[in-house]
Structures are given as structure tokens and as C-alpha cells.
Amino acid sequence: MENMRGSLFMVMAMAAFAVEDMFIKAAATEAAIGVVLTLFGLGGTLIFMMLTWRSGSSILTRAMWSRAILIRSLCEMTGRVCFALAIALTPLSSASAILQASPLVVILGAAVIFGERVGMQRWLAIAVGFAGVLMIIRPGLEGFNPASLFAVISTLGFAGRDLATRAAPPALSNFQLGVCGFLVLIPSGILLQLVNGQALALDGWKMAPATAAQVLAAVLFGVAAYNALTIAMRTGEISVVTPFRYTRLLFALVLGMLVFHEQPDVMTVLGSVLIVGSGAYTLLQSRRLVAVSPSR
Questions:
Q1: What is the three-state SS of 264-283?
Q2: Structure pTM?
Q3: DSSP 3-state assignment of 206?
Q4: Model pLDDT for residues 163-178, shown as the tens digit of each residue
């Protein structure tokens, strides 16, 4: 039941994340990505602070300065910034497809860090999934887009965040973890503005009402997704719950075609199939291991 509950929350999180990505990409076409990320982080931080306060917990605690949380915050910053750049500069469908390699990295980390058992068949499935990523990126080929490397880096960042979430102090609530996660986006967005030379220019921070509404919608869906993801990663086995991340690709493909009129090419579709197929196979292997394991 814990694995089922964790898997359900993972699917809910991925659906909400896909909608969040859609709004961020739409907002980034009208405003600087640094501004969008800063306001996104500010909105999410305020909401999670309010939720933390209403739950009766302290907004800031010493546990937030633990090693696991500091690593988690660094990984969060890396993943969020790089993926925001990826969806702003590349098609939503291809960036989301590359991101689906994150569960493979998480399973690898779970085996190395937490000692979860990963058999040879699942190692092969992980290799197939990475082959799918290469098919989408196509390094060295004519269709290669250097900006797609931002999606690759974000994959490593999000995987590190999820593993650090597992190691986070149990004393921290999901709402407090949300505060930590969104708070680091504020300086990240400002840093992007500094890199672009727009941090001190007031014109660089202006935003049309429609764009501001898109950022607000991204915040609301992002908060819901973040909370569901945190619950998922703290429920059940990582190797069982994590593969349900692949549902994000399905949501992103649909939104990319309907909203942005994207048409993924054959290599992207085939690479996505390999990634999702490897994740599905990994999930089946995880269930078989649970079924044959002796009860205690």
C-alpha cells in the first residue's frame, strides 16, 4: 500500500509539473527567464511559508542547515535553473523527454547510497534509457542543439535533489522542504539577470499582466507538484515509486503539441520510447522482487 500511495502521488506530481512547465515556457517568451524564475521562487516560498505557519511548524529551523538539506538546495538550484533554460530555449517535449533520465540516475544513486538491490536486468534497462537520451540529444549530429545540454544538467540536479530528499531529517515537514526548495530560486533568478546584465535595469523586470498571470499559475501548479513529489519520495521504495516519473513525458508531449504546436521528430519519439520502456521494465522488475521477497 505504501508503494501504491507513493506511485499515485508521483503521477499527480508529474501532471502538475508538466502544466507548470507549460506556463513557465509561455511566460519566458515575453519576459526574461531570470525574472520569471525569481518571481516563481518568491511566490512558491511565500505559499509554503504560509502553509508551514498554518500547520503550526516553524518556518525556519536548525534542521534546514543540515548537510542533506544544503546538498538538496544546491541540487534544486542546479536542476531548476537549467531546466528553466532548457524549456525556454528548446521544445518542451524534447526537454521533458531528456528529463526522464532522472529516474535512472535516482535508481543508480539509490543502489550506491542507500544500498537498494539493483540486478543486472535493471542495469541493462538503465543503459537502454541512457541510449534513448542520446538519441534525443544527438551529440555530434546535424540535429544537435547545444541548449539541450541544459536539460541533461537539470536531470542530474533533480536526481540529486530526490536522493537528498530521502536523506532529509524526518523532523522537517513537506511544507518546510518546500520553503527550502523554492527559496533558493530567488537568488538563482537574480543571478541569471546579473549574467544577462539586466539585474539593475528596471525595464528588465517589467512584466505584462498576462505574463504575470502565467507566472502565478506556474507557482500554484508548482507548489502542488512539489508537495506531491516530496510525499512520493518519502513513501515506499525509491526503485518502485521513481519510474512513475515517466508519466511527465506523456503530459509534456500532449501539452507541447496542443499549446506550442510542437511536432517531435522520429528520433525524439524513438528515444522517448526507449526511455519510457526502460522505466516500465524497471518498475516490473521492482514489483517482481517485492513479490518474491520473503515477508518478515
A1: CCHHHHHHHHHHHHHHHHHH
A2: 0.80
A3: coil
A4: 887 777 888 887 888 8
